[in-house]
Amino acid sequence: MTLTKHKLTDSIHKQINLPKVRCEKLVRLLFEIIKDTLENSEDVLISGFGKLCVKDKKKRRGRNPDSGEELTLDSRRVVTFKCSTVLKAKLNGGRK
User: Fold this and answer.
1) Percent helix, percent strand, percent coil in the chain, to nearest 5
2) Domain segments of the chain as ranges
3) pLDDT tens digit sequence for 16-33
4) Contacts made by residues 72-79, CB under 8 angstroms, sequence distance 24+
5) Is the pTM of this model over 0.85?
6) In CATH terms, is domain 43-96 a member of 3.40.50.300?
7) What pLDDT was estimated at residue 95?
8) Could you give phi then psi for residue 57, rounded to 5 degrees?
9) Which of 88, 5, 93, 3 minimizes the C-alpha distance to 48?
10) CB 50 within 8 A of CB 84
11) What is the helix (H) or strand (E) element at residue 57, kind and residue range?
C-alpha cells in the first residue's frame, strides 16, 4: 500500500476530527516546510521516525548501460533517509 497525501489527510481527519479542508492544508504545509528546509541544505529530524539529509554528489564518470558509451555525470544534490532506532526496532518486531 502506498501512503499518499490524500490518505494522510483522511487519517488526520478521522483521528482528530478537524475539517477535511484544514487537514489537507496541514499536510500540504508540512511538506512545504520539509521541502524548504531541505532546499536550504538543512537536515530534517523527526524524532522516532528518522532523519532526511541533503548530500552533495560530485561529478563522476559513468557509462550508458545500453551503448556502453562513457560519459560524465554532473554533480547533483540528493536526499538521503536514515531510519531512527525506534522505527528500526518497530520494523523488526521489537528487536534492534
Assistant:
1) 40, 30, 30
2) 1-40, 43-96
3) 989 999 999 999 999 999
4) 77/41, 78/54, 79/38, 79/52, 79/53, 79/54, 79/55
5) no
6) no
7) 64
8) -100, 135
9) 88
10) yes
11) strand 50-57
